[in-house]
Specification:
single chain, 392 residues, 7-stranded mixed β-sheet, 3-stranded mixed β-sheet, 18 strands, 30% helix
Amino acid sequence: MIAFTISDYSYVRDMLHEIFQMMDETVGFSSKHFFLVAIDQKSVELACQHGYPVVMWKAYEGNLKDAVANTKIIVSYELVMRGFDFFFTEMDVWWIRSPKENLVEFQKRHDDEEHDEKHLYLSGHQNNPHAPNIGVYAVKADKYTEEYFKIVIDFLKQKPETHDQWIMAEVYRLFQHTYDNQEYKLGGTFKPDGPPETPSVQNPFKAKYFSPHEVVADERPMPTHATLAIHTLNSTPLQMPHGKKMVAKELGVYHGFRSNPSSQEVGPNAAGYYERSGQYRKYIMLDTSTRTNMYSNVQPGRYHDKMTTQWTMALLIALARKTDRILVLPQVFQADMDAGTYFSWPMMDYLKVSEMVDFRETNFVSNRRAWKHGGGGWPFESVVTTALFDAN
């Protein structure tokens, strides 16, 4: 079995070393069996510069609008046609334990009682385990998966405005119902002009699924002792690569471009997955009577008062900019929806703020991966409380 991922420069620029290191040391696929499919020239050049196996691939002209989403389907079909069993994982999936045992069982297992061999190994969502999540899947190359991916590609060509995940899920539901001798008619949000004509399936099958607690895919992922990987699914303002990386940092699963010890970029100024300059850096973080680096709006005078929270964030950003300090983002405790600790990203424009100040995730102090390098110890030489006030 081989493995691959697909990316453009937005992920590759600071995760190239991480993805190959993670696949080798954690997942169990060395660079002899894992490769990057790059959809832009900059990614190809960076991978070649560091000696990583990379394939340049462009989507079919005129048919496929979303290059990353649809290229994975085309590459999957091409591998199946060439007889390669494979494992696919997206760049925003962070593996913390190896799925190798699961993959070996999937590749070899045969249910003697039902004579039902699995051909496709899917992951789901933590809040909906039966809804396929195409960020992680494994495939056996045979007539079953050949027909499956051929139908998926045909639909992608016919309905180029339809989300690839919906097409893969709907086609799988067709195969599953056909296997159970149940009639099924394609439906849902096919664009343009509604669902295509439902084809006749010759080689139906049922897929095998990762547990939703093994591959954890959700906007607010909840890891457990069974977790193998975390797939960050984000909405505004964190749906782009920078936002997904931020969530991975908060969850303590991010490594980053500089984590490879053989990288030329690692030097005396490197620290964890952040690049830093100079011997000393100055940080600023919120300190309150409730807890260091946490803002609570469940207080007299500001309960349900989002404006005070927003002004507090604005003041912290302004102070960090004025004093040329790195802002450690505060956690926010609120009870407007479900009581709990939330992050401060939704109340600031991430891209604009990053142009004004340098900042770190809320768990920066406790996450050694963010600042430790080599023999480096505690990142703070001194800690000073300069002011303490209650904003009402």
